[in-house]
Design goal:
The protein has 5 helices and 10 strands. By secondary structure, it is of the alpha+beta class. It has 2 domains: 30 residues; 181 residues, Sandwich (Immunoglobulin-like), CATH 2.60.40. The strands form 3 sheets. The protein has a 4-stranded antiparallel β-sheet, with no helix packed on it. It has a 4-stranded antiparallel β-sheet with strand order 6-5-9-10. A two-stranded antiparallel sheet has the order 4-7.
Length: 219
Amino acid sequence: MPDLRTQSLRTLNACVLIFAATAVCFAGKQFSMPHPEPAANYPAHDAHPAEHVTVAVDPYDLDDKAKIFSVRYTDIGFMPVFFVITNDGDQPVQLSDMKAQLVTVGRAKLSPAIEDDIERRLARPTAKTRPSPLPIPSRNKVKGAVSMQTREEIQNSMFSARAVEPHSSQAGFLFFDVAGISAPLAGAHFYLTGVRDSKDNELMYFEVPLEKYLSAPVK
């Protein structure tokens, strides 16, 4: 029969293997931002040829797309929308003053949620949040109710670019609070204002009908 020392070593080795396997599984669940295509390649887009800028939105409303997240955000009333903006011009485009809005067929005007809005909903799934018009941290932050992994996922997935360099794209997710809204994408329009060129001139607003997404052929 093996002695006590041998048994201890085997137990230790088994624990190391279990820990390693757990670490690999955990690492596999980390959020990875989808690689953006040029905005014009998405069905739901609006191109401004004279200004050399195109914006696109790609809702992650289906399970096969939303599986990139560790959280089913649609289950708590948030619609993740992949937002892409492409600058085909020779000068940078400024985004520091941009404002995005989703207007439903019922004329509800939805601004993107901030991190605290999502964390509060995760902590209290039945609570209703109202997105803040400004990216100012809430004083009612929920501490300890959301895992570090989930918090990092939200932070890393949210669109945060302040500019788009020439001949490049920027992308990230906007989360819209659609709790209580039936079929929020049907008949909805996405609007984007506040985009400025290198001379600080505001570009014409962008409008993207979500029906372009809903009616596009499934790939």
